[in-house]
Amino acid sequence: MLTENKFSKYILYAVGEIILVVIGILIALQINNWNENRKVQKQEVQIYKEIKNDLSQTKQEILQAVQINKFCLTSNQNLIKAILSKEQNSEIINNHFIASMVEQKVFPKTSGFENLKTIGLNTLSNDSLRIAITNLFQLSFERMKDKSRMENQDYNISKILFPFQTKYLKPDKSKIMKYPSKFADTLSVPKLAINNYENFVNDEELLQTLQIVLFNRSNIINSEMEVLEEINAVTKNIEDELETLNK
């Protein structure tokens, strides 16, 4: 009986030791999981901040592009009106023609999103926000760039107008323009002016091309404004998510 009693105590002691070891392992695993989750969450917060910063810079660049494009759109419209009414040659008409050829490219900042792709898209725990961010960077930004990218002949304004630029713009030696440079000497060159104005205002192909340019620039502005709305929505959702993660 004494032997059985000792054995029973030994069994209870052994079982107790096993339970304590199991509990210790579970606690260690829980702590490890908690630490890993904190590490992942910290990484997620950092990625959101990087993407938000990229979107802020891209937004400012798009706003500047929209402002320039709207100014050029107005010049384009005024130039078409001047041609249709056969206005006399003037400095204003010359300036409208030059402004019509201006293009403002937008280069979205994508370092945060590229970092996310390297780490893994699943780093972002909010599925709907992850999809919204992916669509913005991989679809909306690309569509916006397609509307104004240089190699796209259908939308490239400078390429469309280049033949008319070489045909009608000639250096006016009586008007010298100075272009200061931060790292080089100031450049002094004759100002470009419309040559053979009579042919210019009666060129039907030029008028048709200016109307195409007007339509293309309007499309570019619309595309940029749509992306701005999407940036604002995604930025707001990122701010809300950061507030949740930092609680």
Automatic annotation (TrEMBL):
This protein's source sits in the domain of life called Bacteria
Bilayer-crossing residues are 12-31
Keyword field contains Transmembrane helix: yes
The UniProt entry, under Pfam families, shows:
DUF6090
Q: Which UniProt keywords apply?
A: Membrane, Transmembrane, Transmembrane helix
**What protein name is recorded for this chain?**
Uncharacterized protein
Q: Which organism is it from?
A: Algibacter luteus
